[in-house]
Design goal:
alpha+beta, 8 strands, six-stranded antiparallel sheet, two-stranded antiparallel sheet, globular, 13% strand
Length: 303
């Protein structure tokens, strides 16, 4: 992988990529702020709009900001520093997940900004993708800062202090429902540094998950989402409705608790179970016949 400034500080090129697919990565349900316009993706990262386009093994990134794009930050954000082929080889233990991996090869787990990830997954509870995106957009329009880039407009995600100042009622008015008090509570803890984000980033998986679950409204699933999609803990396994259904149907062939699913999955897929679940999740989301007899038979075929 090679990085070059190809035009100026607002444009950067990442060349000679291997095992990376931008579409699969940004459209796999782990992030709520990327929008596809023609053949490019627009999103807000580090307080600026980024436009990212992939052509074969090259990414072209353009920015709305006046400061240089941070190469290390972008590489970390897109998870380009991991040896994806080795990770996928480790979890490719049967023909079922093998089919999912082959179909979406190059999908990576993002390492997203921590505060926005905490807030976003609090809002994701008992919600669908479209509604989550809509709520986040409304909150950002009301309490964030407007950004523009070549005719495209978006907003920064609200800071913790902005949401604290807004109060629960105004947060509720953005369509957050019962989650308004949870979001305000989290914003308060971060704003007054009862929850120190930099400290959280230094914790191991068990410590970070425990710390996150001290926040009002954050249970195991949301804490695991934050650990996986922001903190880079690949042993995290968020058990949502889809993952529960997938493991009960394909692997366990019975009803199971979240704890039983986690114990099985971590023993079966190993230390990179977070990557395994994302490929299984995205495959099921995109294949209506993911649980038919032909697919069920794959479970018992070794790779």
């Amino acid at each position: 992988m090679k990085m070059d400034n190809v035009t100026n500080q607002r444009q950067m090129c990442i060349q000679h990529l291997s095992n990376f697919n931008l579409q699969y990565t940004l459209e796999s349900g782990q992030s709520f702020r990327w929008n596809r316009v023609d053949d490019a993706y627009y999103g807000v990262v580090e307080g600026r709009i980024l436009r990212i386009q992939q052509s074969d093994d090259t990414l072209i990134i353009e920015s709305s900001g006046n400061e240089p794009i941070s190469k290390p930050h972008l590489s970390h954000y897109l998870d380009l520093n991991r040896e994806l082929a080795s990770i996928l080889a480790a979890v490719n233990v049967d023909a079922y997940i093998g089919q999912a991996i082959n179909r979406f090869w190059g999908m990576r787990l993002l390492n997203q900004e921590l505060w926005e990830t905490i807030a976003s997954f609090i809002l994701s509870q008992n919600n669908n993708m479209g509604r989550i995106r809509s709520i986040i957009r409304t909150l950002s329009e009301r309490f964030g800062s407007r950004l523009e880039f070549e005719g495209y407009a978006d907003y920064t995600f609200p800071t913790p202090q902005a949401l604290v100042d807004a109060g629960v009622d105004e947060i509720f008015d953005c369509g957050t429902g019962y989650r308004a008090s949870y979001l305000w509570h989290a914003a308060s803890k971060v704003s007054n540094e009862e929850l120190k984000l930099d400290t959280l980033k230094q914790m191991n998986y068990t410590e970070a998950k425990h710390e996150l679950m001290q926040l009002k409204g954050i249970g195991e699933k949301v804490a695991d989402c934050i650990c996986l999609f922001s903190l880079g803990h690949l042993t995290a396994l968020p058990v949502d409705v889809w993952i529960k259904r997938i493991f009960e149907t394909i692997y366990l062939r019975k009803r199971a608790t979240a704890r039983e699913i986690q114990e099985f999955a971590k023993n079966y897929f190993g230390e990179f179970v977070g990557y395994a679940q994302q490929y299984l999740f995205h495959y099921a989301q995109n294949h209506p016949n993911w649980a038919d007899a032909e697919h069920l038979a794959l479970r018992y075929k070794e790779r």
